[in-house]
Queue: 4 jobs
Job 1
Amino acid sequence: MRYRPLGTSGIDASIVGLGTAAIRPGDTDDNGFVNAIRAAIDEGVTLIDTAPSYGWGHSEEVVGKAIEGRLDQVVIATKCGVWWEDERGSYNGVKDGKANRVSLRPDTITIEVENSLRRLGVDTIDLLQCHKPAIPPEETPIPETMGCLMELKDQGKIRAIGVSNVSLEQLDAYREAGDLATDQFRYSMILRDREADILPYCSEHNIATLTYWSLEQGLLTGKVGLDRVFSENDFRNTAGEWLPWFKLENRQRLLDMFAGWADLTEKYDCTIAQLAIAWTAAQRGATHVLCGIRTVEQGIQNAGAGALELEANEIQRLRDDLIALGDPV
């Protein structure tokens, strides 16, 4: 495993991190997730990303169970800003049956941090990220939000500050307002638009990046074949409407491209997923790659990508193939 700094925070974290959005009450195997997280930690993964809104506190509780007795081995990243306890903030719709709001007010953030500390079983959160930008009608000014986060940092409740899903303009405003360490956003081999703005900005200003969906919900593992049928309650069942790469004709194009990488998977004794993770982590400005896991095998496999370093000509070769692949039909 390789490790990189989280910006100027003084914290180093594994370049492969764990995403835990899939941990929800009722339809998941909590013990399976605990074992998967611990297996990844054993393989050198230190960065674990969660959020209060993942399972409405359940993900943080399961992560807390998994890291019990291992606090010196992990860097815990959680979030604030998605609020559901009362009417403060701006309405944000319904998720997993619960109406929620976006609130980046200092009073709700302070409550969220105390709740996260309790659920995770830690005294300090290594990285606290604003989950989403403020939305109308209650758009808390960024300096006000950042002032609260800086105060929490001074109090020792958090060690570093990050943002997620922000525009370039919002990112710049956060950086101007305080000590910004990280930015989290969606980025993958087949969704590279952030190369035009966010990635170069973060590289220039020494802001670490946490990319999510870098395996595109399994598409970039090479294991989603034409015969794969998703369950009725799996969002990928109808994802072709808004994730067109899941359409059968586009899956075939991806599988054909992966077949052309057989010499690289043989050379490095790696999987397509590991190749995709390694390529992502090799891009300018891309410092840390979050990967969701459900099983011990996935935890071990994803961690293995953290030691894979592609040669410069191979990185360019894969990019050339992606450019030739073009857009989904």
Note: DSSP finds eleven helices and 13 strands in the chain.
Job 2
Amino acid sequence: MSLERARNWLAQFGLADRIREFSVSSATVELAAKALGTQEERIAKTLSFLVEDAPVLIVAAGDVKIDNPKYKAQFHTKAVMLPADRVEALVGHAVGGVCPFGVNEGVRVYLDESLKRFETVFPACGTANSAAELTIPELERCSGYTAWIDVCKPRG
């Protein structure tokens, strides 16, 4: 059902045919990169947080993590990820398939600057075994993003 929700959303932008489904899991950055045959950094992971009791999604490159001081400067609160058991109800997609496509009303989407170094990236499409290759302008157009932000730093 979540895949269909993402597919219907992307269809509005003429991008539904970009969705790829896999016979293996793509629920993590590492698994998605293997399933797609690409580098981990090109996986556009969608992280879910609570800001003022409302869900917020941050789409970031696969090789970065949240930088807590930058996050606090941006949102004026500590980074608190949504509990896994509440993600689907609050966002509209389950953990492993969270994406910015067809999310619940009121969910704000932000794109992290870490994505701008790529021509195309691979966000999930609502399930733990799907993704789509999108250009950055396509991601901007179909994600309904609120703003570009800089809240990440390299892993490690």
Note: The helical segments are 2-11, 29-36, 68-75, 84-91, 136-143.
Job 3
Amino acid sequence: MERHLFEELGHWYKGNLHTHTQNSDGELPFDTVVNMYREHGYDFLAVTDHWHLNETKEEKDFLLLNGAEWDVNDPVFHIVGFGLERDPGIERGMQAEDYIKRINEAGGLALLAHPAWSLMEPKDIARCEGVFAAEIYNTTSGMPWNPERADSSHYFDLWASSGILMKAVADDDAHHYNGDEMKSFVMVNAGDLSRKSILAALKDGNFYASQGPKILDAVWDDTERTLTLQCSEDTETVYFSSNRCWSPERVQHPMDGKVVFQSVPKETYLRATLIDDMGRKAWLSPFAI
């Protein structure tokens, strides 16, 4: 029996869920940042300044989601909340669990930011129950702005191997605007460009993370135990990750934008990474098989 991993709800929308302005430690004014993303083809944006909640603004061709980033130290957790119906009432001294609970109670979605940059202990994901996703890639967490901790994909394999199938988004977390902007994004399939529809699609996992390559379709066949991906033509390489270390088809090169992976025995989950002709990546979230 086949199942499509994405539900076709109407349209694919491009967005960024984590960025900063001069309202906290970003280099550019709020309006400049919003207009920059809008003019470069983004359909929605969450401005998530540290401890500063802005307003949601819905227009016909662009959705601005309110949001903020709240941090906890020792251990380090950075929790992004966006799309809230009201101020969640988060205060310093609370724990990450409290942040997540209050964001959800306020009608928003909670996102775990840059686990690799935070040097998060993988086991501490148990304290993040209630986040809808985590950042598999965070642009500004890499060079030249930070040590090379932009890619958190190994965390997703450790979590999935222990039974926690975390959804993956990619974000800029732009601060500097000298190359950390408009690089990593999330593609969401939703019925329309409204706060309600975008948040529902994100909560349901109807999205993938990317820097450029497109995942046009993803189909899992329970009978054949195969994953078939339809990719944009610029995709040169696709590799498949799971709780097993080896298979003869783990790395593939698409033919006419299509790859088929045959699952090996004892695999409990799969995820996929696409790489295009410019070295940019896209990520399919881990799913149970």
Note: Residues 30-39 form the longest helix (10 residues).
Job 4
Amino acid sequence: MATIFTKIAAGEIPSYKVAESDDFYAFLDINPLVEGHTLVIPRHTEADYIFDLDSETYLGLMEFAGKVAGAIKAAIPCKRVGVAVLGMEVPHTHIHLVPMSSEGDLNFSNPKKELSAEQFKDIAGRIAEAFNNL
């Protein structure tokens, strides 16, 4: 049975896409810690644990995530983009990319931001534009 992330990458469930390739997909987290909080997933495997990925997929995922992080940093005011791989909430490998102004921005116990659909669309558009200009 396909995971929710597989369905999102296939376009079966709507998302706020910020970047994609044949092998990877990046979209805004709908329960973000901060504006620009993005998830990056592999398209062709539903491996639950990042270290169960084959080497080619793992390295490709990290390279793609690095490009997405560059786009986030260009589009969202922040000091850097933090990286977290928790993987407990959805059984599909995913990387959290979180714009940070302080270390506290990467605390998953923090209250989640509430954003409107228009805010999500604006943020996704800015990151997508930055990604396409890299």
Note: The CA atoms of residues 16 and 121 lie 7 Å apart.
